[in-house]
Amino acid sequence: MSKVQVFVGTKKGAFILTSDSKRAKWDVSDPFFAGWEIYHMKGSPVDPNRIYVSQTSGWFGQIIQRSDDGGKTWFQPGFKPGDSTTTPDGMPVTESNKFAYDTSDAEGKPLSTHQYFDGTQRPWEFKRVWHLEPSLTDPDTVYAGVEDAALFKTTDGGKSWKELSGLRGHSTGPKWSPGAGGMGLHTIILDPNNKDRIYIAISAAGVFRTDNGGKTWNPINKGLSSQYIPDPNAEVGHCVHRIAMHPTRPDVLYMQKHWDVMRTNNSGDLWTEVSDNLPSDFGFVIDVHAHEPETIYVIPIKSDSEHFPPDGKLRVYRSRTGGNNWEALTKGLPQKDCYVNILREAMSVDTLDPCGIYFGTTGGQVYASADGGDSWNAIVQNLPPVYSVEVQVLK
Amino acid sequence: MIRVVLPYHLRNLAHINSEVQLEISGHITINAILNSLEARYPMLAGTIRDHVNKQRRPFVRYYVCGEDISLEQPDAQLPPQILSGKEPFVILGAIAGG
């Protein structure tokens, strides 16, 4: 029988929730990395025992953790517990938490500043890793989306990281500015049919695509309209919250933006709005059913100033038509007095049939549906605020 | 023998449960202590001071002999009590909410 593991990153540690394929009864692990903010935790699709974690702290900065045994033990890449390897001259060799922006003459020299809230130019300054995206083919290769927005890559299992500076080097770089949560690169989508194509999204710059493995990038924000920027149809400046793709149709992307749910059928060349009858077209998460590429899920949030579900009712909305024609899914979800938020990294789907859908709240609940969203249960109730949810099915 | 006291989370990262003792030759300064500490516990690199510019992280403080010396020059000589090991060099996370 298959085993399901849900990786939950929270404000005060990581948790692994485990069940069988029925997904009716769940075990909750003790906290990992207790007291640290866990922005993201994701397993390699090639080797499910290989798990990467972004562990971060306002005090002590960024740590990368890795497990090679499915989450039983953890270490900072480059070191086993107890190791104290140094260079011959006695300097530390660990670089698993070193995310240094490219300032080389060849590629990074012009990448000096970006726009700040007040319109002035500020130097790029590394703050944390928001998202880790393991390669589809190599367990040692991982992409990291960081704040201030940049994309890094490791090819040695997280021991060292190198910036793909062609992204930040795009001519619009100096115009990128932070969203309220910071200027984070939060979404990384690898095209399963084209190893050279990657999509990323930045708050609040928008969506970018590379077709040459990350050397050069172009904004793909045509069709987006954002009333909160001087030119609503600008090339960059859009506060994209999340993008999702079904692996069988990599040219179709779905987007939850800071207002508007969007869809593209041509790899981002043009987006069209599919918000239709949602009670609010604001939200953070969006995801796609594992077996039905036209079935998508969002959780509307009331905005701009409140950031909780409309009317105190926690409702997942499902469209079976690739956008528009949304239906509210409420069975098992609180329909009064609910004022939590669901952050952008906090929804995921499993690959079982029927498809399981999972999301975590800022109130510390993780809800799961084992029937494609028709009904829901809180599989854990009282965690710290949930930042991220990922799911792994083990055969 | 230089004694260094680390905060809870850094002791966990370094897999230690007590204070650290370091042998350091030459001038005893903040930088000398941190260089030696990071050499012995490389997993702490980047957690106390920035990897690239070596600036102290904002919510990390250094105490010696009951004084907060976080704003002192990192290459300034530390008091003889640190050199003798009578007093520890204390690294701590500031109380900053959360």
Helicity range of chain B = 10-25%
Kindly report the spatial arrangement of strands forming the biggest sheet of chain A.
3-2-1-29
Number of strands of chain A: 29
The first-level CATH class of chain B is given as: Alpha Beta
Coarse structural class of chain B: alpha+beta
CATH topology of chain B: Ubiquitin-like (UB roll)
Task: Report the mean per-residue pLDDT of chain B as an integer.
Answer: 93
Topology summary:
The complex is a heterodimer of chains A (395) and B (98).
Chain A (H helix, E strand, L loop, with lengths): L2 E8 L2 E8 L6 E2 L8 E7 L7 E7 L3 E7 L45 E3 L5 E3 L4 E7 L7 E6 L2 E5 L7 E2 L20 E7 L7 E6 L2 E5 L7 E2 L20 E6 L7 E5 L3 E4 L6 E3 L12 E3 L7 E3 L17 E4 L7 E3 L17 E3 L7 E4 L5 E4 L7 E4 L5 E9 L1
Antiparallel strand pairs in A: 1-2, 1-29, 2-3, 4-5, 5-6, 7-8, 9-10, 10-11, 11-12, 13-14, 14-15, 15-16, 17-18, 18-19, 19-20, 21-22, 22-23, 23-24, 25-26, 26-27, 27-28
Chain B lengths: L1 E4 L2 H7 L5 E3 L7 H11 L19 E5 L2 E2 L11 H5 L4 E5 L5
Parallel strand pairs in B: 1-5
Antiparallel strand pairs in B: 1-2, 3-4, 3-5
Structural notes for this entry:
The complex is a heterodimer of chains A (395) and B (98). Chain A is mainly β and 395 residues long. Chain A has one domain: Methylamine Dehydrogenase, Chain H (7 Propeller). Chain A has strands at 3-10, 13-20, 27-28, 37-43, 51-57, 61-67, 113-115, 121-123, 128-134, 142-147, 150-154, 162-163, 184-190, 198-203, 206-210, 218-219, 240-245, 253-257, 261-264, 271-273, 286-288, 296-298, 316-319, 327-329, 347-349, 357-360, 366-369, 377-380, 386-394. In chain A, a hairpin with a 7-residue loop joins strand 27 (366-369) and strand 28 (377-380). Chain A starts with a strand and ends with a strand. The model of chain A has no long low-confidence stretch (mean pLDDT 94). Chain B is α+β, with helices and mostly antiparallel strands. Chain B has a single domain (2-93), classed as Ubiquitin-like (UB roll) (Roll), CATH 3.10.20.30. In chain B, strands 2-1-5-3-4 form a 5-stranded mixed sheet. The longest helix of chain B has 11 residues, at 30-40. Chain B starts with a strand and ends in a 5-residue tail after the last strand. Chain A binds chain B through residues 35-36, 57-63, 76, 78-79, 81-86, 90-95, 97-100, and chain B through 7-10, 13, 15, 35-36, 38-48, 50-52, 57, 59-60, 93-94, 96, 98.
